[in-house]
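Example record

The entry below shows one chain as it appears in the dataset: sequence first, then structure tokens.
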Amino acid sequence: MIRRLLSVQTKEDDVEQQRENIFHTKCVINDKVCSIIIDSCSCSCTNVTSVTLVRKLGLNTIKHERPYQLQWLNECGVVKVNRQVMISFLVGKYKNEVLCDVVPMHATHLLLGRP
């Protein structure tokens, strides 16, 4: 079984499709330019924002209705997600408001999964 798992290789088509599912750009939140990643992959369905963004912009958080634990692939280990924040953002002329889980991440300020 282990030998079979180790011999599995990613197909080039899968890698190309994965690149097409991630869109990275800038947005405006409270008159500040922020980074945003939109992940349209069918497996990504959570909207998250960074603790840093929430602190720097002084956004008010609310208690998460259903807290959960998240395993990050960095030195943080397991993170308890227990806060949320409503974020209004602009990308060009497009304006939206989303409820995001607040997590300690460094990759971007705002990460949006599919709705």
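Notes for this example: The longest strand covers residues 78-91. Residues 21 and 40 are 5 Å apart (CA to CA).
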